[in-house]
Amino acid sequence: MSTDTQDRETTDGFHLVIDALKLNDIDTIFALPGIPITDFLRMSQAEGLKVISFRHEQHAGNAAAAAGFITGKPGICFTVSAPGFLNGLTALANATTNCFPMILISGSSEREIVDLQQGDYEEMDQLAVAKPLCKAAFRVLHAEDIGVGIARAIRSAVSGRPGGVYLDLPAKLFAQTMDKEAGRKSLIKVVDAAPRQIPAPEAVQRAVDLLKSARKPLVILGKGAAYAQADAEIKAFVEKSGIPYLPMSMAKGLLPDNHSQSASAARSYVLAEADVVMLVGARLNWLLSHGKGKTWGAGSGKEAGKQQFIQVDISPTEADSNVAIAAPVIGDIGSCISAFNQAMGSGWSKPPSDWTGAIAERKDKNLTKMAETLAKNPPVMNFHSALNVVRNTVKDNPKAYLVNEGANALDFTRSIVDMYEPRRRLDVGTWGIMGIGMGYAVAAAVVTGKPVVAVCGDSAFGFSGMEVETICRYNLPVCVVVFNNNGIYKGTDTNPRGTEVAPTVFVKNAKYELLMQAFGGHGVRADNPEQLKKALDEAIASGKPTLINAIIDETAGTESGRITSLNPAMAKKK
User: How far is the C-alpha of 154 from the C-alpha of 138, rounded, in Å?
Assistant: First the structure.
């Protein structure tokens, strides 16, 4: 070997992965250490990356997904092989379903051993398992291909309809070495990872003409509209058009919920009566009754069921997925809405006053009724009296993030707590799954530095509750509010055989606040609205990890929350 070769500097797979991430402005990794990624995480931290380590891979993955939604950059989650990979896979699939950009990177066993099924440590063909559950999946076998692998993963995660991407890195890849300068040249800085997709002018004009013909138009804003960060364009469109709008759960705050055109308080009425419905980054899935059935009445008589739909979406295959779309507009949300604003022109006529007036009348009636309910102060808190406190806290702290999961805790919070800023509400999303709470809360606090209030049912909290240690370890400004009614839905079920407790009932009077105290955070019990308000105010002011055990009447709540129709037994009772 020549002296020149001996003196040449080398790099390895560990540092090439780190350098590729840093080159693409990725500064945070969510992970759980273990073979073969422990040393990688140590090196990443030493090289200036922020490494947030969790107690379970699913929650690290959920944090990466939430970070992707908030920032528009792919959130990165690292796991160990096989069981660790499988734990992260739930979050990856959920991210893909919700269209959040996320990259799950897992160490894995060597290909030659996996392919012959020779029984390696944590042996699994992870790429094959991941492929059906994510937007794209790649494996890197050689150090010189790390730059390409990272670049392809980033572009796949954020381009078009965002989603989850799996990147498989076999253990021995990390130790591979190559010439340092050649390694540097092999890395790729991704340029224009999510390019604008300009809508066809004729598609925009078709949609505008349809809106002009509507007597009862309605705009539905989905979380895709929130993710697009086209806030100014959307606000201009809504206000210029004068069309009432309905925000889906994670689009709340895209325009303030107290905006005069918000139809949230008259949701059932506008869905039943609207004749032209414009979907902006929203899908006609189960959350909107698939665009048909009793929810969508389109008035009465000969006009019943005659709605026409405009759909603004980045994916052309989304149109006609449930009902006919009269005017599909395909492109990125920002470009599409900008085109609408131009096409509307200066002579735009706002919707008829009998339509907007009827909505306003129902809103006033429902809001008055809600205010009366929220003002009540029963001896033991129910969801309404407790959430009235949360509602006021969010109003006073509009830039705080609200994480929300549960059944009744989710449904009541969504309808009671108004949002005032975009992308501040993070919840269970399209699948309606439990367990996102602590991962989302950690992500929001880490990537924004803002206060986070996580409202969880006691059942939902149980899925990720151990991550309060993570919250304490990183001293994050997260306040967890556990609505404790002693069980799933409510704590009143009994076992007719009189043996073990009913499957929906938890330990009575559980002291959840002690879990936070165990790790050095602040834990407090709240039995009434005054105590809850005091604890919330102190948590927001201090920015310290806090858990409030909010005692809720165990008879409060309903079976399955507001999706009783999906529960076969309850649907039969009706």
Answer: 11
No. of H helices and E strands in the chain? 24, 19
Starting at the edge strand found earlier in the chain, the sheet holding 425-427 runs: 425-427, 401-405, 452-457, 478-484, 546-551, 522-526
* Tens of pLDDT, residues 212-226: 999 999 999 999 999
Alpha helix (H) residue ranges in 118-200: 126-130, 146-158, 171-175, 180-186
Assign 421 a pLDDT band (cuts: 50, 70, 90).
very high
Q: Are 514 and 498 in contact, with CB atoms under 8 Å apart?
A: no
Extended strands (E) in 82-155: 102-108, 136-139
DSSP code at position 539: H
Q: Reply yes or no on domain 376-573 having CATH 3.10.580.10.
A: no
505: alpha, beta or left? (left if phi > 0; alpha if psi -120 to 50):
beta
Cis peptide bond upstream of 36, omega within 30: yes
CATH of 3-186, one of 3.90.79.10, 3.30.70.20, 3.40.50.970, 3.40.50.300: 3.40.50.970
Query: Residues near 465 by Cβ (< 8 Å), separated by ≥ 6?
Result: 438, 512, 515
Rounded Cα distance, 552 and 535, in Å: 16
Instruction: Give 31: exposed, middle or buried? Use CB within 10 Å, 0-12, 13-18, 19+.
Output: buried
Structure letter (DSSP) for residue 275? S
3-186 and 201-359 share one CATH topology?
A: yes
Domain residue limits, the chain: 3-186, 201-359, 376-573
Q: pLDDT tens digits, residue range 366-391?
A: 999 999 999 999 999 999 999 999 99
Looking at the DSSP assignment, which residues form a beta bridge with residue 453?
402, 479
The answer, as to whether pTM is greater than 0.85, is yes
Is 3.40.50.1220 the CATH number for 201-359?
A: yes
pLDDT tens sequence across 246-294: 999 999 999 999 999 999 999 999 999 999 999 999 999 989 999 998 8
